[in-house]
Amino acid sequence: MIDTHAHIYLEEFAEDVETVIQSAKDAGVTKILMPNIDSTTTEDMMQLVEKYPETCYPMMGLHPCSAKIDNERELKHVEKMLNEHTFIAVGEIGTDLYWDKTFWSEQQEAFNIQCELALMHNLPIVIHCRETIDETIELVNPWVDKGLNGVFHCFGGSVEQGEKITKLGFYLGIGGISTFKNGGIDKVIPFLDKSKVLLETDSPYLSPVPHRGKRNEPAYIKLIAERIAELWETSLDEVDSVTTMNTERLFKL
Ligand code: NI
Question: What is the pTM assigned to this prediction?
Answer without folding.
Answer: 0.97
